[in-house]
Amino acid sequence: MPHRVEPRTGVAFMLDRGQRLTVSDPEGGQVADLIAFNRDDVDETLSNGRTLDYASRIYLTTGDPLYSNRSNVMLDIVEDDVGRHDFLLTPCSKDTFRILYGDTDPHRGCFGNLAEALAPHGIGADRIGTAFNCFMNVPVNGETGTFEVLPPLSKAGDRIVFEARMDLIIGLTACSAPLSNGGSFKPIAWAIA
Ligand SMILES: [Zn+2]
């Protein structure tokens, strides 16, 4: 049975080298922020800059590796029903909602949820960088570099599967940002095999 991440919450869990993590969108149109740390040395974490540099693309899918800040492969994408994910933007946070949405009493967002879930593993908030945002749909204008955050292309039951290339601590959210998911906060499901 898959585990469930409730709307606007986050979790942390262990993923061993060689295990596969399936992240699925049970209702469709929801985003899941995924971040990974080397379990043996949490200074090593997912790096969007290195990953996109080596891929020479900003949209990643089946067959693409996700690299760490030390240029080691942390995860491989081994299956992908959707083909559109984001690896440019940081987890939504109370500052996102304050600056971008003008909220006066902002939700703590994926960032706050990840910080709370990762704290028991000795990972402080300042270590949380750019997450791999499963199903997040951020089309970029190739001429101007401007981008939009549009509703995900994921349909109910769509999934993306990662294989761990080292022992990891994973943080995972059901995104809290209205723009990411078309204004509908939904759960996310995950399973390890
Ligand atoms: Zn979010």
From TrEMBL:
Q: Which InterPro entries match?
A: DUF1989
DUF1989 domain boundaries: 4-169
Give one Pfam family.
Answer: DUF1989
The protein depicted here goes by the name Urea carboxylase-associated family protein
The record lists the organism as Sphingomonas sabuli
